[in-house]
Amino acid sequence: DQQVKQNSPSLSVQEGRISILNCDYTNSMFDYFLWYKKYPAEGPTFLISISSIKDKNEDGRFTVFLNKSAKHLSLHIVPSQPGDSAVYFCAAIPPYRDDKIIFGKGTRLHILP
Amino acid sequence: SAVISQKPSRDICQRGTSLTIQCQVDSQVTMMFWYRQQPGQSLTLIATANQGSEATYESGFVIDKFPISRPNLTFSTLTVSNMSPEDSSIYLCSASTGGRGEKLFFGSGTQLSVL
Prior knowledge:
The structure holds two protein chains of two kinds.
Chain A (H helix, E strand, L loop, with lengths): L3 E2 L4 E5 L4 E7 L6 E7 L6 E7 L4 E4 L2 E6 L4 E6 L8 E8 L8 E2 L3 E6 L1
Parallel strand pairs in A: 2-11
Antiparallel strand pairs in A: 1-3, 3-8, 4-5, 4-9, 6-7, 7-8, 9-10, 9-11
Chain B lengths: L3 E4 L2 E4 L5 E7 L5 E7 L5 E7 L6 E2 L10 E5 L2 E6 L8 E8 L7 E3 L3 E5 L1
Parallel strand pairs in B: 2-11
Antiparallel strand pairs in B: 1-3, 3-8, 4-5, 4-9, 5-6, 7-8, 9-10, 9-11
């Protein structure tokens, strides 16, 4: 049973515009969320995180929003750049196990010229 | 940060055989993990590799099928035993230097195809 859901397998966005990647989770006990980015033939790399005590975290062009009541988070990239073309994984950490990260299936982002 | 070297990067294997994947980290890390990503699925944690002792397996994964070694702080192996086509996946080694996922680093993965 998927506890972290990324319902859009792919997304295409024009260069310079905003990319919005969405993620839903089922377990209200999750208290920490992360986004990872993955290029082809490489492993995922950490991008940005957010604690459940916050509703927004920003790092340069990347902002993650958390809506706890809706069990939903989103990653905003603005402006989108060609190098942002990658697979983005949403992930959650349960409060009882810091070492176990639960990943979504990923969303492939294509930045169009 | 930690740089993880994983090999082989890909392999095609026959049903019933075994494959051992090696993972080398360039610095001492606190924890090492093995993940699997089946086609169209999410990354799933197989086990935590414990230095000098038996690995800790997640539900649905057993030692007989996925024996893991970690003889020191920077090296680990995962064996996929008695392979079947259902084992065709990407297998990823990862290592953590602490934190809550921010310091989780991944190898580039092993693309395994079982015929």
